């Protein structure tokens, strides 16, 4: 079986039905969405299915969409690669804004360990079953997740950001 987007989509919809949606090409990568409760099983299927064989996790990233409805304020994307066919795909799952939570895939891909820790550290996305979900780049004492867009980009009270110090006058 040639691994093209039609075959990938057919295999996925056969197995996961209406849990997957929004199949599309974005910048030469085949992308689609999956319900968060099926994300773990889908990633496992993509890795273990003999025809698909997406055996390499290239990236896992968190995203914050503060303007979306509460049920879709956070997302996690998985980028997977089939080296044999040199095919890449991106899977996105949306998470609830009140309690962004998803099953960990560390047991499927060991490299997901640090990627999930980074998504938790910056966005507060909880990965259930993660072996050691703790801060990876920020201080342990931090109580916030700095990449959430609910926080201002800069402190308006800082004087070192005054335009006069940079040769700009108003």
Describe the protein's architecture and organization.
The protein has 170 residues and is α/β, with parallel strands linked by helices. The chain has a single domain (23-152), classed as Beta Polymerase, domain 2, CATH 3.30.460.80. The protein contains 3 helices and 7 strands; from the N terminus they run αββαββββαβ. The chain has helices at residues 5-16, 39-48, 112-123, and strands at residues 20-26, 29-34, 56-64, 74-82, 87-95, 101-103, 126-128. It has a 5-stranded mixed beta sheet with strand order 1-2-5-4-3. Strands 6-7 form a two-stranded parallel ribbon. The chain is elongated and about 60 Å long. It starts with a helix and ends in a 42-residue tail after the last strand. The mean pLDDT is 89. Residues 33-155 form the NADH:ubiquinone oxidoreductase 30kDa subunit domain. It is an enzyme of class 7 (translocase). NDH-1 is composed of 14 different subunits. Subunits NuoB, C, D, E, F, and G constitute the peripheral sector of the complex. It catalyses: a quinone + NADH + 5 H(+)(in) = a quinol + NAD(+) + 4 H(+)(out). Belongs to the complex I 30 kDa subunit family.
């Amino acid at each position: 079986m040639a691994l093209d987007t039609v075959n990938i989509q057919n295999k996925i919809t056969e197995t996961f039905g209406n849990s997957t949606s929004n199949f599309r090409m974005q910048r030469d990568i085949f992308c689609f969405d999956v319900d968060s409760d099926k994300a773990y099983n889908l990633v496992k299927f993509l890795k273990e299915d003999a025809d698909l064989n997406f055996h390499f996790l290239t990236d896992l990233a968190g995203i914050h969409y503060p303007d979306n409805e509460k049920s879709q304020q956070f997302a996690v994307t998985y980028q997977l690669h089939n080296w044999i066919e040199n095919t890449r795909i991106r899977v996105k799952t949306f998470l609830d804004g009140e309690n962004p939570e998803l099953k960990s895939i560390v047991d499927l891909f060991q490299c997901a360990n640090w990627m999930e820790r980074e998504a938790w550290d910056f966005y507060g996305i909880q990965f259930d079953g993660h072996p050691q979900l703790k801060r990876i780049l920020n201080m342990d004492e931090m109580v916030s997740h700095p990449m959430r867009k609910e926080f201002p980009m800069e402190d308006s009270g800082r004087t070192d950001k005054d335009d006069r110090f940079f040769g700009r006058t108003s």
